[in-house]
Amino acid sequence: MNTFTKAAFAAFMSAGIAHAHDYTIADVTITHPMTFETAKAVNVAGGYMTLENNGDTDDKLIEVRVATIPHVELHLSETDANGVARMTKQDGIPVPAGETVVLKPGGLHVMFMGLNGDPFELGEEIPATLVFEQAGEVEVIFNVEERSTHDHSGMDHSGHKMSD
After folding, report:
1. Which residues are bridge partners to 29 per DSSP?
2. Model pTM greater than 0.85?
3. Which among 106, 145, 142 has a CA at the least distance from the CA of 126?
4. 105 in Cβ contact with 85 (< 8 Å)
5. Which CATH code for domain 22-163?
6. From CA 83, how far away is CA 75, in angstroms rounded?
7. Among residues 62, 69, 73, 151, which one has the fewest Cβ atoms lying within 10 Å of its Cβ?
């Protein structure tokens, strides 16, 4: 590896390390909770992460609490055969024993609602409490990241109809 390649590799690795953050409670590992920066006019944002259940007992993410956000729900976005996107509130997100569940744009996600002109800004950290049915509560940080660094196939929540 030449000097430039080594420097580029080191920069890449340190950038990845700066963004990657994991938490563990009981048998559940939470990897890289994050959200995207938002425009000032946007009132909602999605939260994403990976949940891995390393145990022998099923668990379920039943709540996410954020002191600074008036309303937080668990949602599923689905697109039907006609291309119509629909978002539905979930009573929880099952995390079966021995399995990994990915919360991502266009699928299961946390819905932060009521931003009320206080946008998520690049580099901001959103402290939250994840509540699991079996594992209990764990404090995490959702990093606010730049949308352009991620897959653009996800969904923009600003125009979605939300139903229970």
Report:
1. 24, 52
2. no
3. 142
4. no
5. 2.60.40.1890
6. 18
7. 151
How is residue 36 written in tokens?
A: 């995207």
Contact 1, 9 (CB under 8 A): yes
3-state secondary structure the chain: CCHHHHHHHHHHHHHHHHHCCEEEECCEEEEEEEEECCCCCCCEEEEEEEEEECCCCCEEEEEEECCCCCEEEEEEEEECCCCCEEEEEECCEEECCCCEEEECCCCEEEEEECCCCCCCCCCCEEEEEEEECCCEEEEEEEEEECHHHCCCCCCCHHHCCEEC
Q: Tokens 């002109």 identify what position?
A: 117
Domains of the chain, residue spans: 22-163
pLDDT at 150: 52
Q: Could you tell me the two tokens for 92?
A: 């929880």
Q: What is the pLDDT along the chain (164 residues), one digit of tens a residue?
A: 444 444 444 444 444 444 568 999 999 999 999 999 999 999 999 999 999 999 999 999 999 999 999 999 999 999 999 999 999 999 999 999 999 999 999 999 999 999 988 999 999 999 999 999 999 999 999 999 998 755 544 444 444 444 44
Measured on CA atoms in the order 163, 140, 29, 45, is the torsion positive or negative? positive
